Amino acid sequence: MTRLYGNILTERGWQHGHLLFDGERIVGIDASPADPAGNDDPYLLPGFIDLHVHGGDGADVMDGAEALARVARKHAGHGTTALLATTVCADDALLRALLPQLGNVCRQRPVGAAEVLGIHLEGPYVSPHSLGALPDETRAATLAEVDRYRALAPVRVITLAPEIPGHDTLIGELVQRGIRVQLGHGQGSYEAAVAALAQGAAGFTHLFNAMSPLHHRAPGMVGAALAHAEFSELIPDLIHVHPGAMRAALRAIPRLYCVTDATSLAGLPDGQYGDGPRAVHKCLGGVRLADGRLAGSALTMDQALRNLVGIGLTLAGASACLSRNPADYLGLSERGRLAVDAVADVVQFDRALCLRGVWVAGEAVTPVAKGAPAG
C-alpha cells in the first residue's frame, strides 16, 4: 500500500490528507476539504496524458520499439503517465513495417515508462500545402489502408485535412471504428471544417498551427474550432501560440487539452542536430528548421503546467487541460482523475511547481524535471 500526503486534486475539488493506492489502482482518499493555499504541503495531481508525442531524449517514434520505449521513459520523468505515439508522413511500406513494433510497446508498458495508449497518425493524410515540418509524403486516406494499419497497432487518433477529396465521406466510417478524427495540417475553409465536425470529427490538431487561420470574412479552420469544437489540441510552449490566443481558445473550447508535440530534442541541450536541409536547431525552448519554421517542440508536460499557470489559469484548471480533458477525449474514464478505482497515475509538485514525484499505474518513477513557474 502506498500512502501519499498532501493537497489532493479530486473530482470534487481540493482535499487535504492521504491518497492511497495498492498496485495499479487508487483504493482510497483519506481526506477532508481544505484550501491548498493555506498550507505548505505538496500538490497531488492526476498524471499527465499527452496525445501528441513524436520523441524525446534523442529518440524518435519513427525509429521503432526501442526508441518508443526510450521516449516513454523520458516523458514519464516529466510527469507524463500516458501518451499516444505520434507518427509523421511516411510511405505505406514504412508504416507497415513500423506499426507492429509500436504496437508491441502499446501492449506491454516498459518498466519506468509512461503507458503508450496507442497511435496517433498525424500523417500522411494531410495537405501538401500545410505540412509545417512534416515530410512531404502525403496521400488521401482510404478505409482499406487504415484498416490495415489498425490490424498492426491500436490506432486511436488520425489527423485529416478536411479539404482533401474523399475525407468528408470517410470520417463517419473511421468514427464507427472507434478512431478519433482530428482536423489539421490543412487549408480547408470554415464550411469544410464545420461539415467534417458534423460527420463526426472530434477535434483539431495543434490549434492555430498548420491550418487556415481566422479572418473575420474567412474564418477558416481556426474559426470553426473556436465556434464549434468541444475538444482541441493546443501546444502551450508559449512559442507555437501567443498567450492571448491561448486564452481565447481556452475560453471558447470547453474541453481544450494541451499536448507537447515533442520531438526527439525534448530533454536535450540547445544546439544543431543533424545535417543538410532536415537539420534542426534547438534554442530557447524552441525547435526550428534552418529556414526558421517551427519543427515540433521540446516541451515537456511539467513545463506545460507551469506555462498554463503562468498565463493565469488556476492549478486545477491547468491540470484539467493536461489530464482529465485528454482522458475524456479518448473516453478513458479510469484515467486523468484521482478517484477510487481509477488508475494510480499520480504526479506530485512542490509549492514552486517543481515536479517531485511520479507514479505510473502505481509504479514510482524518478522525476527528472526541475523548474519554476513561467511568467
Automatic annotation (TrEMBL):
<dbReference type="GO" id="GO:0046872">
    <property type="term" value="F:metal ion binding"/>
</dbReference>
<dbReference type="GO" id="GO:0006046">
    <property type="term" value="P:N-acetylglucosamine catabolic process"/>
</dbReference>
<keyword id="KW-0378">Hydrolase</keyword>
<dbReference type="Pfam" id="PF01979">
    <property type="entry name" value="Amidohydro_1"/>
</dbReference>
<feature type="binding site">
    <location>
        <position position="240"/>
    </location>
    <ligand>
        <name>substrate</name>
    </ligand>
</feature>
<feature type="binding site">
    <location>
        <position position="133"/>
    </location>
    <ligand>
        <name>substrate</name>
    </ligand>
</feature>
<feature type="binding site">
    <location>
        <position position="122"/>
    </location>
    <ligand>
        <name>Zn(2+)</name>
    </ligand>
</feature>
<feature type="binding site">
    <location>
        <begin position="209"/>
        <end position="210"/>
    </location>
    <ligand>
        <name>substrate</name>
    </ligand>
</feature>
<keyword id="KW-0479">Metal-binding</keyword>
<feature type="binding site">
    <location>
        <begin position="294"/>
        <end position="296"/>
    </location>
    <ligand>
        <name>substrate</name>
    </ligand>
</feature>
<dbReference type="InterPro" id="IPR011059">
    <property type="entry name" value="Metal-dep_hydrolase_composite"/>
</dbReference>
<dbReference type="GO" id="GO:0008448">
    <property type="term" value="F:N-acetylglucosamine-6-phosphate deacetylase activity"/>
</dbReference>
<feature type="active site" description="Proton donor/acceptor">
    <location>
        <position position="261"/>
    </location>
</feature>
<feature type="binding site">
    <location>
        <position position="217"/>
    </location>
    <ligand>
        <name>substrate</name>
    </ligand>
</feature>
<feature type="binding site">
    <location>
        <position position="185"/>
    </location>
    <ligand>
        <name>Zn(2+)</name>
    </ligand>
</feature>
<dbReference type="InterPro" id="IPR032466">
    <property type="entry name" value="Metal_Hydrolase"/>
</dbReference>
<protein>
    <submittedName>
        <fullName>N-acetylglucosamine-6-phosphate deacetylase</fullName>
    </submittedName>
</protein>
<dbReference type="InterPro" id="IPR006680">
    <property type="entry name" value="Amidohydro-rel"/>
</dbReference>
<feature type="domain" description="Amidohydrolase-related">
    <location>
        <begin position="43"/>
        <end position="365"/>
    </location>
</feature>
<keyword id="KW-0119">Carbohydrate metabolism</keyword>
<feature type="binding site">
    <location>
        <position position="206"/>
    </location>
    <ligand>
        <name>Zn(2+)</name>
    </ligand>
</feature>
<dbReference type="InterPro" id="IPR003764">
    <property type="entry name" value="GlcNAc_6-P_deAcase"/>
</dbReference>
<comment type="similarity">
    <text>Belongs to the metallo-dependent hydrolases superfamily. NagA family.</text>
</comment>
